[in-house]
Fold these 3 entries.
Entry 1:
Amino acid sequence: MAETTVTSVNKSKWSTLDMAYIAVFAVLIAICSWISIPTVVPFTLQTFAVFAAVGVLGGRRGTLAVLVYILLGAIGIPVFAGFSGGVSILFGTTGGYILGFLLTGLLYWGLTKALGEKLPVMILSMVLGLAVCYAFGTAWFMVVYAKMSGAIGIGTALGWCVIPFIIPDLCKIALAVALTKVLKPHVK
């Protein structure tokens, strides 16, 4: 009987700890979405935070942190880039990239669960997750943009939405992997 009680308490504490980690990383994603690096094409750090979330927390908790971030934005809390929020952002031209973060997390979760959380698998999962996010986001962008302003070609869409971000996003992956190596041993 006593063993059952101790196990129940430990599971309860673990669930609370999970929720705390998920909340902290959802907030980190929001904060990083507000940080805009001014370059020829400005970019935010939210993809870094998505990679850090899945790397540090693992696929399940990291993906849930991304989902919480998206849901907070969907209900109107200004967690998206430019301190914006609301369903209209998700249904706008950039909404596919935000929803693509969830696909990134799910892909990371699936690959690391199947192949283990070894460093090469983590890096490959993040790079493939980025590619899926780009593909989904760009397809979404082209559909929404076509409804608003007329059709554009894939080359134009990639030139606007992907190519300028490849090198910064690969740098964010490298930074997230470095952060993961430092923090993961301390996160239960």
Note: Strands lie at 36-37, 43-44.
Entry 2:
Amino acid sequence: MRKQLVLVGAGGFGREVAWQLGQINDLSQTYDILGFVDDSPETGGKVLNGLPVVGDTDWLLRYPGEISAVICVGSSKSRKTIAEKLGANPQIEFPNVIASDVRYSDTVRLGKGCVICLSNIWTVNITAGDFVVAGVDCSVGHDAVIGDCVTLHPSVNVSGNVNIGPCTEIGTGTNIIQGKKIGGYCVIGAGSVVIRDIPEKCTAVGVPAEPIKFHF
């Protein structure tokens, strides 16, 4: 029996995940996709890529039965806020969505609610927390540790033994060399190269990446 599922977030990333879920269903009829859930008034009643916007997060919070939800929001902090809100309904399940062509070993450990997009390669002995997002064409090396609600934007390369703290966003095309630690609640600018540890709660950019401001 297929599980009923909604996608939380009707923006571009939500539509990308819907397409990838369709590919998963083509291989094995896993989900009955009801549509999108979005808090933006502009999306109410719309049909996007063939799927309706069925309600907002308050509607989902009141949903009377069991349902699966995938939080399709690129912002780490926003995803964390939504996850905390929806967690008040124990009948909402947060499955991991792993695209059909992702390559990963059986020693990869994911929390709940993760989205791993097309063309990712995750090697061995990797641990990721809850609600992690890895965009298209990312790679994660051996023994990496990725905290809750981390976002790897497209084409990020994470080398072995890297540790990324919670709610950090790694910009498109960033490379992180082996063994480095990036603190929580950071933003690493697109195209950066991380060759030394990055402290928490900062924005870092450049080649090599250096903090340019801190978030207090």
Note: The helical segments are 12-27, 57-61, 76-86.
Entry 3:
Amino acid sequence: MKKLYRILIVAALVCISLVTKAQNDGIGFTLLPQMPFANYYNPGIRMEQRGMIGLMFSNVNYSLYNSSVKYKNLFGNDETVVDAVKFVNSLKDDNVINSNISLDFLNVGFRVQKLFFNIDWRLRMTGQFNYSKDFVGFFVYGNGHYMGADNPCDFSLGLEASVFHEFGIAAQYEVNDKLTVGIRPKILSGIVNVSFDNEETKIYTDPNSYAITADVYLNIKMASLLEGTCRKIGDMPKMVDSVAARDMMDFGENIGFGVDLGASYIINDHFGVAAGIYDLGYIKWTKATTKTVDKKNVTLNDGLFGSLSEIRDMELDYESMLGDIIREVWGDSLMENGKDYKTYLKSRFMVQGYYEYNPMLRATAIGQLYFAKGKVHPALTLAYSGKFWNHMDLTLNCTLSKYTGTTVGFGIGGHFGPFNIFAVTDNILSVATIGSPAIEFASSFRQANARFGIVWYW
């Protein structure tokens, strides 16, 4: 199974090691009643604490999402043997792998009468990798599956990946006993971005001569503060190999701006509602390098694999295959200096309501709309949360989404005076899936999420 996943990942390595960005980076941690993160996505949700501070490990998150890969579709009747054909047939025409990684270096909050302020500094890594069904099918079936001008292999890929700092100053104001409003303006400082568009490459096999040709369209934009140089397309993996921790501390270039907005309203002792917009903004990337390749009827002199037995037995030489893709399909040509360009954050609109019977029993419903590349992705989360003895929080949630399927999350928080620790996952069944393909519900997960942190508050 690991080898099969590497087929999907190998093309992204051409561009950058970050092939991840999540559709949903988890909302369960905002529902732990005594943790000071209720306003993390919505600065208008009222904070109960008078002050809080978190350093380095106050909030660490990793989320992975994919639109198509299901654990149960990797195997045939023998659950120990990968069925590559079954896997290819289960894919959609256009598939997505994405994730979020974030680390809060600093998160400080304090109250001044009706105002609550937050100052935060986060390192964020985001990305989205798109691949066609035929891209995987080409390595499983071989080019013989795509014969003739009317049946080309759609060898399409897309990637957008970014690493950037986010500096935010949030303020929420209690208009009265019921209404709270908030705003979080943010300054963004980009470290690296790769925008890779290869959505129109077609590979043809002549049914008479078996000659392999390609119509290639490739558009790469890249901006980086990393020390490694990238003079050619094939240099990108080498550049990523040279990344050091000091590269993450560069500031002052690739500046952008963002804002989060929100409001909450307490209807009575039991009911409340809130609405907010998260991640409205952009980054302007400077000192960009670009490459556009637009060629027709390019002859591929060498195959991308040695024999069909390599495909059948999943024994591909991936390093060699990566080099062949660059050389034969895209061309390992020089990058060029390009114009500045902008990338936009993937905005999210949220509406939520809750009913609280007592501190141990709160039910919450959260509707979310994600906006990415002109598409809207909805999700609905139903959650329970409660606090016990002022020392423990619990939350249990279920998220329904067309793209991630149905997931069940769990979170726990411990409170010992000013010291607080928490751990949350928005898909606990993804853990149960490992080694348990017989569990049908668990074996169809398409999203994994983990978040933990240590924070002090008073």
Note: The radius of gyration is 24 Å.
